[in-house]
Amino acid sequence: TFNAVEDVMALPETIGGATGVKPERWSVGIAATYAVFLPFILILRMDTGLVFCRKSDFDLIGGYDERRYFGEDAQFLWDLRCLGRTRGQRLVRLNPVKAVASMRKFDALGDWHYFRSVFRLLPMMLRSPESTNEFVERYWYGGER
Asked: pTM for the complete prediction?
């Protein structure tokens, strides 16, 4: 993985990117959840997993917004993409070296829990990013952020 990151970051046209993820296990519920997010990944050409960039660019865009409880990675990649466009650089997806995503929340809450939760989360996100904080704090941090 790190060799692939090093190779792609050696290219001047690359500002950064992500590896993507593959679940450590599959089920119908996990596959349905994955299918909901896949169009966004393909349309936006941004992914999750191991996210990488140069430290100078990380500092220039201000890193991750720690005030966000959710979506800070997407905002970071969006900001990185915008910076790259000003320089003729692009984000890359390193599909061959995907990170393995833990399924511990699926193990604890059931294989369909996230699929159902995303449809409750989307209307909140449309109102404001802050409206998602209470939901996300309970889900990811159990109230112990």
From this structure: 0.82
